[in-house]
């Protein structure tokens, strides 16, 4: 869109163009004086009265124009509408066009009427001089330029045509390109100024936006020239730098200014500025004297100097430090965690030391403390152990809580240091009594350590070897301390091979199930049989359950073994004579998963075994971690008809409370109560009391571990059991042997019934 088209111009730009028409009064006065004076000169030379009248008209037009100029001066420009501005332009054009037309008429009259060369020359010269000023004064109005050009040129051209002199006609026609050039020049000036006005407006908007941004952003900003003098600083800059009392920052030298704020931290910022020389961009996190943190970003300006942008990151720094602390330190004890401990060990050993020792400590019976006293006391005990370790080490060693109740200590020193003595001292220091929440706890801590030269560092190997030594001390118990020995490696690798073999045995179904019958007290009939898993290793022979079952628990495959035994037991029991039942043990891992109900139901349905003929056995220790969840699973099993039995009753810490709170049908009293009942009256009284309480609750009593006829006689004499399990009647037998035994039992029952 063309700038000279008034209708397309923005109102403020159009107003500026029209205002330029009323601007330069000096040329207006000069022009009018010259015009009137030239008329008098021509009159004096030619005695033509026409020019006296023309001088009077010039004066009238000048008065008209002066009137509108003064009115425009008194007008409030900001209130003008676009239409108002158009009317002001028209009022100006009337006066300007009239002046140009009078000049043209004066020249034409001299050419046609007077035909005097001097008069013609003077009039045309004044007219052409006036036309030259049209561009400079009237570029703001295309209409004014066009009308003035026509007013000056058309009368002269017409006058030359009337003379019918060919040389005058040709000369007058040269006014056409002159007029067009004048108009074109005015348009060019107007377009140039229009573009500059728009550019100025855009620049003003940008400056305004930049100013708003500087005032409103939360960051501080300082711009300095190549001499380091501050040129620009926003209002946040003095606030962030604590320089509110320093007045305006502009004009001050940057580095001394920042030094007053940062103190010793100026060195970090100076380093960042030096890096920015090469990289054009650098950052520095600086701590101020008031412990706040400012992050500076320094960048180089293309014309020289620097831009420094900074923000207060105190809250973010504290949050990051907290996250970093949480990632590195144990929340309970405040000690480094296992991951950070390994980092600290590498850092400590990188400093160089002649020898090192890794000591692992494990609180003996910690689970018992949790179960009996509660987790709050257990947590308090761990905190006290951590405090004692920290106070004894006095920052000489690296201490960490690894996991659970296990702690690790790295001891380093020169060749003169007695590592064994240091490890023994630390181990001894954590033994003894602790006071936690008004509870006095006597604690034994087992320890295992490994001594290795520093240059052989491998944290994984160190931890494995120290863990092997710790396992050895835990087997000894009572706060033992063991040093790693080479043969422990062999034991460890043997254990790893055994793990692999057990996994393969489960995969290849090489585990077998045997059954131990449970009889009526008089031995007349088999009530049920307990399914027991066995493993015969191809090279090592039979592996005891107390070895491979804990191994399976540690490997996380004990639930797979439970499913395998459950499936086999249901298959075998379905072929036994009714109502003989089968009893299957469930592990704590089984009861932590709601899937157990699904695969028990699946086994019953697959082998068409009535649920009443399946008993599941659980030990009371399973209920201590999450009794509500375990109770829910047992109730679901019981709801489908499965009988629930609690095994090894009496060996836990709160046995009697479970008899009333859990969905139980059978209580299997541990063999510890049966042993020596004929020789210890107290044990007999305790057993009788448990049996009486159990029966009053409507539960069936099973005594396990009955080995001798003397024990059996006493049990029958006092009526202490509903069912007997033990070698006095039968050892565990294979499925084939059990079928034979059950057949003989059935024949015996029929014979007894027939004799009756």
Automatic annotation (TrEMBL):
Record flagged with keyword Membrane: yes
Keywords attached to this entry = Membrane, Transmembrane, Transmembrane helix
Tell me the superkingdom of the source.
Answer: Bacteria
Q: Which CDD domains is this protein grouped with?
A: EAL, GGDEF
Annotated GGDEF domain residues: 354-486
Transmembrane ranges? 51-69, 90-112, 118-140, 152-180
The residues covered by the EAL domain are: 495-746
SUPFAM superfamilies linked to this entry: EAL domain-like (SSF141868), Nucleotide cyclase (SSF55073), PYP-like sensor domain (PAS domain) (SSF55785)
Cited InterPro entries: Biofilm_reg_signaling, EAL_dom, EAL_sf, GGDEF_dom, Nucleotide_cyclase, PAS-like_dom_sf, Rev_trsase/Diguanyl_cyclase
What is the recorded name of this protein? Diguanylate cyclase (GGDEF)-like protein
Q: State the species of origin.
A: Pseudorhizobium tarimense
Phylogenetic classification of the source organism: Bacteria, Pseudomonadati, Pseudomonadota, Alphaproteobacteria, Hyphomicrobiales
